[in-house]
Amino acid sequence: MTAPLLQVEGLTVAFGHGAGRNVAVDDLSYTLEAGETLAIVGESGSGKSVSSMALLGLLPPRSARIESGVARFRGTDLLHLPERELRAVRGNRIAMIFQEPMTSLTPVLRIGQQITEALVEHRGLSLRDAREKALETLRLVDLSDPPRRMQQFPHELSGGMRQRVMIAMAMALEPDILIADEPTTALDVTVQAQILDLMRDVQARFGTAILLITHDMGVVAEMAERVVVMNKGRKVEDGPVDAIFARPRADYTRRLLAAVPRLGARASEDGPRPTVADPAHPGDDVLRAEGLGKTFAGRGRLFGRAAGTVAMDDVGFTVRAGETLALVGESGSGKSTSGRAVLRLIEVDRGRIDLEGEDMRALPQRSLRRARRAMQMVFQDPFAALNPRMSVGRLIGEPMQIHGIARGADLKDHVAELLRRVGLEADHMRRFPHEFSGGQRQRICIARALGVRPKLIVADEPTSALDVSVQAQVLDLMLELQQSLGLGYLFISHDMAVVEEMAHRVAVMRQGRIVEMGPRRAVLGAPRHPYTAALLAAVPRPDPTAQRPKLPQLDLGTIPMGPLAEAAPGHWVAT
Amino acid sequence: MARFIVQRLLAALVTIWIASIAVTMLIHLVPGDPVRIMYAGFQTTDAEIEAIRTRLGLDRPVWEQYFMYVGRVLTGDLGYSIVGNQPVLQTLLQRFPATLALTVSSLFIAVVVGGSLGFFAAYKRGTAWDFGAMTLAIVGVSMPHFWLGLLLLFLFSMTLEWLPVGGSGWQNLILPALTLGLATGAVIARLTRSAMIDIFDQDFVRTAHAKGLPKTLVLYRHALRSGLVPVVSMLGLQFAYLMGGAIVIENVFAWNGVGRLAIQAVFARDYPLIQGFILFFATVVALVSVVIDVAYALLDPRIRYGT
Amino acid sequence: MSAPDTAQAGPAAARLSGVQQALTALLRSPSGAVGLAIVLLLVIAAVFAPLIAPHDPLRMASGPRLSPPSAAHWMGTDQLGRDMFSRVVFGARLTLQIGVIAVGISLTSGLLLGLVAGYAGGWTERVLMRLVDVLFSFTEIVIALACLAILGVGLVNAMIAIGIASIPFYARITHSVVLVEKNKPYFEAAIAAGASRLRLIFVHLLPNVIPTLIVVGTLGVSTAVLAAAGLSFLGLGAQPPQPEWGFMLSSSRDLIARAPWMMIFPGLAIAITVLGFNLLGDGVREVLDPRQRAR
């Protein structure tokens, strides 16, 4: 047997010195064979990104230090290579693509130059030949009209297109290894599916080995042949992908896999998993929204305005007590706008919002403030949703104080009770938000929302900023609260698997309109709108034995985007 | 791009327009009788005062005065100075080349010295070089312009006797330009450093490194070219500050520009001249920022090819 | 299920008070420590000026005229035989006054303006900020000159003029911070909680705007001191016989060759003062903005 393409042994990377020394990667070893895909998977802070940056000498030079280790690649040790020789490897034999396609391309240079410069540098090609090669690569990554793309600047391309350019840039030199650091995390799920397909395609063509760094078990299952699981800088276990998923040996891997929501797991159930003995059942309508419309004004110009963006168009739905309506869609679909509009955090142009039979849009400011008691919001980013200069006690107490529910010692008791209710401790109230972890902060946000005993909670991607194991706990808490308090949830999410776990009913949004709405089981199990079907098909399954269905070709021009018609009782589809 | 230029020009017009209003208001904000204050140094009778008031139009409603003033300004008439009874516009234009020479040469020095120092410090971030450069810069920022001027005067004109003390030749421009240029250069060095550090931390610089490009290429092609955008965008403001600084520096070095004229006018309460100066200053600053904004737009494709 | 995410934050009792923490952090940053030392020195000089200064700063012929620095007159004497050291020490009082009054005027007005514009939005914001931008492009010195043309020359008028001249700067900074804070989810959360307008402004916006303004205000003292010295140098600010540093420099101008000490010491005093506030401002910024600290 020949030596592996890349062999990493005992890699240790630390930030800081002395007492402030913080080991990010601890004694990591793995091998990568030619042509295979190895996934390094872990949650935030696991050291998975740092370890791959270290290979190419891309760590921040003054703060991070490689303390020990060997990385043998084609007979040389990358970690101890002089910068000059390492540079000859970088981008040439080992290329890399990054998470943020929006910021990873130089804004002031044309796409063409950014692709050709590496060819000129490593291959010594003439500009003309480099251009030819670049065009060929752009064609390979399925970008339309490559000659025009060459002349464009990054800001003229969408996120998915930029990631294709990044892949073209990386593959132009036909490297032996492609390091992909969360390559699809910033992308919508349908674009993610296309990019993953593309990566597999170029891998097959050039026999490139892929080192895939990701937190997403679905992506791992779909792409990887072997897996390294990392936690807190250490390797927890490694092995073939089937074995890792079927027979995880380490506790951590088992917990991680158990926490991953799986699309289809509740396909045969009508509602979410019961978490209390006698769960509240959906009752009367709490919220009824009809014909909501919102156009964001274009940039003000001297003469007139640029055409605005239509964020919501004829959006209508209801939420019942004890029921979760999930709004799903990709970025720009208008799902967040709809959530904010319901709370009147954004004023809509048209439509009617009834909260428990009261027309919210007709309310004057003062009464609106009072009416806000009945509806609360939980935000995506729990770090930003808590005023950093207020103690947790004040934060949770504020809504109760505003609405005159409690004051003084009574208020303190209420806050303590709420903290315990969401799984924190009463004496946490004296601390400030920065002293808590992400999951704890989201619990604080939920406690704050609960204080005024609302009927409706709008949850805007409440777990997408959290690690998967923390996500599972927060979702559990939300289910438990709903079932014991009879809360109505408007649950906004891009993650179909999470939606399946949480929702009674689902509304799918695209370009500001609801294209399909109905019972969760029907919409996710037997979608009637082609866009819903495409969204579902694009979701990677955290199961290496399952084959993701081939992406259906969506003809964007002919997707029905008209008014909803009732296709089955309670199941509405755009015509 | 054309739209961008038109937009900037219109913004400049708004600036000039607001300046014209401010200038008309100025005389009415003076506590007491502005005419008597203006002519405090002259022997005048009450009848003469009233005659002057009528001549200057100060007995009419403010809005009428405003339109009269704008009407005259549009024909190039900024009125006559109290002291010496000279046409204000001609006086300003006569002095302006001296000020322009001073500010342009200072800006050149400031950009070359400050820009390279800031870039160098950012590149050597965290090292003794960075610390040294930034110590130099903060000392430069903290020194009063006029004191730096006096020190240079003492050193080069008095002690070393390399340069003349007074006069209006090009040798006399060296010290004021150096003073103003170094002082502004210190500010530009600090701004450049932080702008470049922001750039060095960007994802695209990491991408460029990951491509295996030589360090110098990453630096000049990717980082510097992107860094120029924020650096150039702040030059408009720096030019305005240079014009302001020139007022003081001209007085230190007896350089006969508009700034020296302005100070004399404030002393003499020569309101027509003060009004003319402010309007003139605002116009020059506004037009120069248009030029700089266009230069900045040329560097940034997001504006160059935007709508 | 995975382990509960109740990772313990440090015990509450062990935490220092916010002020103590900030001060420790400030002293740990080199610029903050040096800046604080300089500013403290300045305050001491101002408060105890009569005890520190060996002579009356206004008394002529405390010694021979234009005598160079010596044991009797550490910084020499001026053309009227006044003791330069005493004048410089007393000058600290005027300088501190200038800093406090000018920054006080511009900070409060600018804060109010920026807060109102940023919170109100719409046309109010557009008109106010457009006006502020235009005034800003006039530069402080021209606005100050215009104010002095209205008010007449004098040190107090110069302080007021500088205060007014810097309002646009503070308004812009406040406005930009308000815009950032207003778009953070915590602000939306407060609206959703039903907070009143006053609560939104004073409980949620203001405390998050103040830290930036502390930094800017500290740095602003430098600008004010420089500007006042400049106006006094031009003869528009302090009048004889006030021991104002900028004014002292202007009287030294014709005597540079004969008595360079008259030029060197007041200038040094201004530069060190300004440096002190600049360093202190940088230090406070490092404490308040951890992102900057990493640099």
Structure description:
The complex is a heterotrimer of chains A (575), B (307) and C (295). By secondary structure, chain A is an alpha/beta fold. Chain A folds into two domains: 34-64 and 81-261, 3-Layer(aba) Sandwich (Rossmann fold); 285-299 and 308-574, Rossmann fold (3-Layer(aba) Sandwich). Chain A contains 19 helices and 22 strands. In chain A, helix 4 crosses helix 6, helix 6 (159-171) runs parallel beside helix 7 and helix 13 packs parallel to helix 15. The longest helix of chain A is centred in the middle third of the chain and has 18 residues, at 189-206. Chain B is mostly helical and 307 residues long. Chain C is mostly helical and 295 residues long. At the B-C interface, helix 1, helix 6, helix 7, helix 11 and helix 12 of B face helix 5, helix 6, helix 10, helix 11 and helix 12 of C.
Give the topology, please:
The complex is a heterotrimer of chains A (575), B (307) and C (295).
Chain A lengths: L5 E10 L6 E11 L4 E5 L6 H8 L8 E10 L2 E2 L5 H7 L4 E4 L13 H13 L3 H14 L5 H6 L7 H13 L5 E5 L7 H18 L2 E6 L2 H7 L2 E6 L2 E7 H6 L4 H9 L25 E12 L12 E12 L3 E5 L6 H8 L7 E6 L2 E2 L5 H7 L3 E4 L13 H11 L5 H14 L16 H13 L5 E5 L7 H18 L2 E6 L2 H7 L2 E6 L2 E7 H6 L4 H9 L25 E5 L2 E4 L1
Chain B lengths: L1 H28 L4 H5 L7 H11 L5 H13 L13 H36 L4 H15 L2 H15 L10 H31 L2 H8 L4 H19 L1 H18 L5 H11 L2 H29 L1 H4 L3
Chain C lengths: L17 H11 L1 H18 L1 H4 L31 H37 L1 H16 L2 H12 L3 H11 L1 H16 L2 H8 L4 H37 L11 H8 L7 H29 L1 H4 L2
Helix pairs in contact in C: 1-12, 2-4, 2-12, 4-5, 4-7, 4-8, 4-10, 4-12, 5-8, 6-7, 7-10, 8-10, 10-11, 10-12, 11-12
